[in-house]
Task: structure prediction
Amino acid sequence: MISLAYRDIGNGFGRYLLTGLGIGLLIGVTLTMAGVFRGMVEDGRALLKAAGADIWVVQRNTLGPFAEPSSLPDDFYHGLLALDGVAQARNVAYLTLEIGAQHKVRVMLQGLAPDTPMPPLIAGRPISRSHYELIVDQRSRFQLDDIIHIHRHDYRVVGITRGMRSPSGDPMVFLPLKDAQKIQFLKDNDALYRDRKHLADNPRLNPPGNPFVLDAVEQTLFSNHRVNAILVNLRPGYDAQRLADDIEKWLRVTAYPTKRMERILIGNLIATASRQIGMFLAILTIVTAAIIALTIYSMTQTKLREIAVLKLIGTPNLLISRMILLEAVGLGLIGFLGGKLAATYWAPLFPKHVVLLGKDTLLALAITLTICVIASIAGIRAALRVPPSSAISG
Result:
């Protein structure tokens, strides 16, 4: 049985191998897209783990700070510290933008409060000054002592970390909280001039004889004392969900335990990408099945006369069916091995973080073998319909 399949494959080994490698590219793309989704989930969890918070406090009725905009006064954490069970409350600011001069890189900035733990470094030192220092992820391709101009000021790279990315795959950049607040909330000089002129010309905001109204509005509009979220750590023995409910009840904000924030991050922010990747995976699976089925059917059609001869000399249909099935499985195994190697070697070249899990690889192997078995049915049916007499006719 096995030698029969080997001999048949050997007659057209070049075409058989090239077809298997072509299928391997499809399987490699499938594994890579699954890895992209896994990478997005891993990046989101790594970001939450690096924050080290038990509860995320954000603007009321928002899913911030990642899924929706969120803004809170930076002195709001004092009210959180007054609640029983709160051990620590620290401000944090997030902002996505492009930075760099020679090469533009889309990054997510995270402003670190003075009492916030620094990310683990692979080179350089932690931030030691209150202004104008950065820690960058190595995927940003910035080096130590690089000077990066962001809005109004220049910042020096003092440290490099690894594996810190946003849920969208952008490398993270860490800087002092005050600098992040200025970058995100402080307007440039032209914008300040236009807003002041608009306020001065608006009688509703600038009533005659009452300059205090204008001063109050200006202070509100032009202040940069805002943050996107407040990270809360609990004292031992306190329940995160119960304390989050108390925060929402007494302080009129929205509070998410870390597990809930993880579900929001993955379920809301990554949901659209996951559906798109799922559709592509389904399409690639169908295309792979069609190619294997057409290849096996074509190989069967080209040797119908030989199959008729086998039947004429008494070869059972079961042996012929096994031959075709083994050819289909062999095609799938060649494709799977080629695809796994391709995905392993080109995954680091992708701009997105690609995570190839063992369980995804085993699932892909099982699906590939199932596709091969189903795809061989057309070839087996064509072979079984061949009458033995056609071997001596014509």
Q: What stands out?
A: DSSP finds twelve helices and twelve strands in the chain. The first strand starts at residue 55 and ends at 58. The chain has a mean pLDDT of 83.
